[in-house]
Amino acid sequence: MGEHERDDSEDEDGTGESPTNDGHRFDRLPATAEERVVPDRPTRREVLDWWDERFGVEPVVFDSHTFWERGDGKIWAFREELATPVEIEALGMTFLRTRQEHWKPTMAAIQRFGEHATRNVVHLDRERAAEFLAGRDQELDWDGDWGYLVVTHDLAGRPEPLGVGLYVYGELRSQVPKGRRRDLDG
Amino acid sequence: MDETGSSDVLARYEPLVDDVEAFRAACRRPLPSAVRVNTLRTTVERAPRALNAEGIDHERVAWHPHLLKLDGQSGANWPYVQGWLHGQEEVSALPARVLDPDPGQRVWDACAAPGSKTTQLAALMDDRGLVVATDDNLGRLSALRSNTERLGATSVAVTNEDARVHSLSPFGEEPYDRALVDVPCSCEGTVRKNPDTLAEWTLEHVLGIAGAQKGILRRAVQATRPGGTVVYSTCTFAPEENEGVLDYVLDEEPCRLVEFDLPLASSPGVTGWEGEEFDPSVARARRIYPHQNDTGGFFCAKLEVTG
After folding, report:
1. Contacts of B156 in chain A (CB under 8 A)
2. Cα B107 to the center of its chain, rounded Å
3. Which of A89, A118, B96, B250 matches a 20 to 30 Å C-alpha distance to A185?
């Protein structure tokens, strides 16, 4: 995996500037490539496969959710069926960014669905989790893949998915969006 | 009593209150902060365990299994970051409980920002179904968006519009099963949190905002199916914004007020105010004064759509 650009500008509410003409409405993802009309729009199949391959989250986890794109590569997950397109402010939860070569899940999606992840999961102790939540990078021994990881920590005696980390060059780079960073005592 | 130099707004409500001294005393006491446990993310057992581990003192609210009173601020701790907790005043948790939506239903939250009740509705529905959250203020919607994301609700669709002209077209023109109309108001009942509220009070504002409240409640009745439920609530004591709004909408739209149980001590809606008589059924609404349960002030009514 090559150079990664940190996406500090991630706005989890998806209301930031949108580079394409899709920016003001939600279009449902086509089920498969055969049904694709807008070039480069990811399909539901591709999204399900990505979660499965990257984190071991089985497609059945998303059976009750529909996927939508608003703006270039900003994918949302919604717990209902609606006729596409939908022109409103928000539809469910920001879920995944697919514009770059390496797709990136949102912090909200990891907190919501990350409990189902079985690979590319790194567990941090409280002190390291506090560094991560504050938005700071840290050195990390990690034998697995480079790229986006599910970061977990213990809360009330059980591991909980906290957010997204980017592992490159021996370093875990916090991807916690600015608005959700906190300085909590380790 | 009046340190601000403004007129004594609360004196206006003394004729309505059973114990004026207790009412006055309660309005002077600051309100302890409370949090709601987000059952989309955790359980009522695990959240207190996480708070204990953080050394944060807390106490269960007797009437509501998901509410905890906290010592200090609610936002700077691990369970909050994890979406387990949401800062929400006790009485503010009432209207969603009265609306009592079921999983899979279509529900409208007409004045939704900053999303405390929206996310409570989604949690009551186990994040199954549709919660349409409407607000006319984009800045406040941004707060709602961060709350729905942090609390993990995926059943919420957000619209930015004036609730009085809310459009069902993005949602297939189908009416709602339930609607929550927790309107902007003169907020006298929040005096324990914001003492400045009373300093800004004017009768013109009360009468002006009552006009908007009537329009929003009318739209909610229109957008809800026959047999469906609409809950109207405010945090003001002003009859103009409470029973007066109900009286107007009872005349204009096919609906009726129904009795309901509250887990807190309350008083019936008032059937007359300053020479005006209201429909007698407004007595089925409930008034909550700060001294009755040591909470903020609140008003809540439950309507059934009849046609």
Report:
1. 90, 92
2. 15
3. A118
